Write a sequence for this structure.
């Protein structure tokens, strides 16, 4: 199987970190091909940067889908997920959605942890749009700027994650935890051991779910609201995208 | 007051129809300045076309906000509404949201009517994202292709709207009706008379709510998740947008 | 336009404060005519006092609606709102509902602040009845008895409002704040500046929404559950009310 | 035990029908004392008539509560229920609420049947206010004017109830049925036999639940939002009510 | 009336405590016949022990239903409630459900208190399954191992219950409290007096609701999803159960 | 990987059909080991039969979990799913839950189709317990007794499934369909082609999700409500189960 991974941020090293993480999850069952945005925000940190990044996500997906069995969105907040499901011929998996769905199979309440309080409402809205709000005990954020340095595991970050995860379990009644954010890759095992519940890594969950959908080979909608309309008129847009609507 | 209206479709005549409709609603209390997308879909008819149209909506909004008191989105499905509320300094109003909120003040259950069944799920998701699903009795669609000819009122369209509206009132228990779709402007009064409940025109509701927010002069968020982040890095994007994040 | 304002409490000075506040919001676009209850509770502070006050609200509305374009209820908890929408010929706006709907257009989550914890559950039930619970981050109350002295702005009240508003933004993730309670008029601007999010004044929101509905001139329901029934028998009730049901 | 029953309509014969029905349910375990409104609507058929009837309900309850162990509201839409729970010293039971709660113990989904479609939205709002919407499969209404003649069982009414109940079971998946409306008393047994699910009579459910609360002797709230406030000022209201707030 | 009480735990002294408590509630109106599990967990303290205990609950119910007017489940988490409603000919009442429904008639928000935090999520799921989550302000737990000694009232337990109940009222806005857990019987009156809101004892609520249903004599479903299927094949199961499906 | 499949019905041929179906989905990535109940209902067709079957499910799971990487429940209504997640050391996957979660990644609204209307409410309650009700457009049932003959594909069944699926897409707005019921295996491809949306087979979805969880190797909870309690007392139960709680 061949899985396409697209990072709508322009940060190449983040792409590589997600790719390696995803590849490890699927092992020899699939190959992950990763592409990075050539324009847009360096890192998405708000609703409007997510909106700005969408154009490049659509362009890269339309350009690279051929020859792949599934697309995994390489971004924590699932930029353009439902639009891409309508636009493309291959299955599309988001990291946040895949993590939430996978965690749903490991317990009752899901505790979610990210980096930076400003993104918590955005994640909550995303969770609500999937109809999964009732499964989430709480979204919490750690505030550790050093986490954004994408290097080896940082003991300060690890301690902050463990402390917040203990609150998710003991105060909020979480049965399973998700660590949201590409730079939080690599801490799941230690956090899980420290707090005594399973911890889901979104890139690994998304890669495994992309593999699941690739194996199922679901038909692309030609009826209903996810069918891609035909014979549409566009002007001045990317030709790979326009070609899909002829 | 000066209200900015942006149509993210490239259809100039639709822009003009919405502008005239909005201007009539606010009368002399405000002037509506309308702009039309220069690239993108001719008419948005699906999730993915809405995603494609977003880039031009962001560009036009960033380019033209100066000198206006509020922005009214000239499109039935509120393209980029929450992202623009974060990005811009002026209040932003969507036609679907404004119609739903205004209709909420006229009764209990809101019946919603649009053109073409394929968009009903998209409107339902939009309604859910505003937390207003419980206020809507049902979304129904008429299938009358001649409605897209943007000319004078069409008796075939009028009959279809009245028939569907009667179902919204008698079968679905609607106390008020919304006619969603720029080309449905001009039928509200006849439908209202025929079915015996008030009928809300989204362009008129949006113009009046834009006027309301313009009069209130609410402060722009500098805290919380709707504050526009500062000092962000972008590459290759529209300079009017990039300038907002310096 | 002429907007009718009815205070179902017997406190004349509270009526005057709301009237002045509402008049300022609409400026020269409308004239606010205010009436005060002649019997009932001095100040509504509980469910049962609200129920007791309802009779006088119905009487004054039936007596004074003629010659007005809309009715604004001059009370924080929207006494009799849906019943009046059925009973009267003109649009009816409640302060709590108008504030919640208007705040919905300024961000994601709405933080609500009132005076006295005992009323918080009553406001929460009211919010739920409008289907808007998911939009509210939290209802909080300050406990500052001096706020009830309806005089100039009080620095103790201002400090309490700012402190509670900071909790609404920083702990509860509110993007916009509502100050509920007639005696909290006049603090919105300072609180907004101090906490960095917009703050909505319910009397101003209600006056502007009453103006919006007056401009729209929606038809009165003659079908459905908000149509006023005809040919009904009553005994011993106010003749202005009875006359409406003949 | 002594149970107080108050009918806020002025129709004495409806009061008597409910009293007899309630008395039959509790047998010798309690005596039902019934009172009828002396002013207000002859029959409540809308939101506004319910609002008009409230004043007399409050007056009769305050006047007659002494010497009774519980109050049962003799009206299908629970006029003033939560306000009376705050105002009075004895437990208060509504017919709609009691029927819904009792039916909850007999199956999964509750099908509700009343007389006249115009009241269905009002009942749906009432159900939502109790947090019980998810338990109700559907509210349906029969349209049989002869049902309002309060005489012996009418075969036309019985056939209409059975037909609508079959739809509630077969189309809507109801496991138990409620017949809402004082004039529908006396049909429960036949409908139940015809459709094969239990049928709850609201007056009987309310009488039995009033007996349950009377036996439990729950303390009256002196804390929280259902505590009756003290030291309140009123003018021009019924002295029995005013006395409660001293 | 004869009410059957079945404890699916093997602890005889807990059965006796519940029986006495239930008998006191119904007085001379009914006789409570109690049976204790002969195999299974000594005390249910988790989801899986509840699942293990189910087999014995089903066996005892099928064996003993004859000659009784209703079944009251003698266990805090309503083991097998909906399955038994389908399986048996007599009405079935659960302690948790009966307490929640009865408390619903005493105020707005219900505060729930149990012993041991591990069971809180299980109770929350049970509450959600009844559609009653929106009525519950919060589930809280005390951690007082001495409470499990089923002897006379313990002042340490009483103090812990009062302190937690004050939080339920003052912080969580509860209008009524439920004490969940057979070993918390006997504290309701003192807690109620201390915190100023009514307190519901689940065994008493269940006994009174069993009496209510026994008096109503609802028909057993022969249609819909609660009808017991006929002509089913089983192998190796309890003959009293198998006999019901012939 | 080794995946354990347990059928709590006593029908060996149904087990074999599910095993073959599951094995086909995972291919060489895992081996499915299947076991069939030795006592209980031949086929579960109601809530109470599901409850009766639970004991054997628990026994077989406790007896066979060693040496397996995940457990897949071989039954359409996920008998004992959450209890087994607490009881066992390996991940547990239910067919209904896995199908719903997998279908969530293929569109917006999920249409669900089963055999026999009596099970629809049971599936709806199951869906609600997963917090996924808002994702399901509708549960529909076909009534084709010949489907229960577990042989080759039956053209009558196929036509009924296609017709009901068209209603799910065209009337109910479904974007993806689930065929629930072991005997509906083998129709997914034809239904998908006929109606133009993807169709999910629960056994295949469950097998692939069991493989996903087996690859992730999530830690077993030792904290929170899904931790298996220790030092518990049992009497008269299966020794393999009892051993887990020592």
């Amino acid at each position: 199987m061949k899985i396409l991974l697209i990072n709508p941020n322009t940060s190449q090293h983040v792409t590589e970190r997600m790719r390696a993480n995803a590849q490890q999850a699927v092992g020899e069952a699939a190959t992950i091909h990763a592409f990075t945005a050539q324009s847009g925000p360096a890192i998405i940190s708000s609703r409007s940067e997510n909106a700005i990044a969408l154009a490049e996500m659509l362009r890269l997906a339309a350009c690279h889908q051929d020859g792949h069995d599934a697309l995994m969105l390489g971004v924590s907040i699932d930029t353009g997920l439902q639009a891409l499901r309508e636009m493309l011929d291959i299955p599309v998996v988001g990291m946040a959605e895949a993590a939430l769905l996978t965690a749903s199979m490991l317990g009752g309440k899901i505790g979610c942890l990210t980096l930076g309080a400003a993104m918590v409402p955005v994640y909550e809205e995303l969770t609500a749009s999937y109809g999964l709000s009732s499964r989430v005990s709480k979204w919490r954020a750690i505030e550790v700027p050093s986490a954004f340095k994408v290097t080896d595991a940082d003991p300060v970050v690890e301690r902050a994650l463990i402390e917040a995860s203990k609150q998710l379990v003991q105060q909020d009644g979480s049965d399973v935890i998700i660590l949201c954010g590409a730079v939080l890759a690599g801490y799941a095992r230690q956090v899980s051991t420290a707090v005594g519940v399973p911890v889901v890594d979104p890139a690994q969950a998304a890669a495994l779910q992309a593999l699941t959908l690739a194996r199922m080979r679901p038909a692309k909608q030609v009826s209903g609201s996810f069918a891609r309309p035909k014979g549409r008129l566009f002007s001045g847009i990317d030709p790979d995208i326009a070609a899909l609507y002829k």
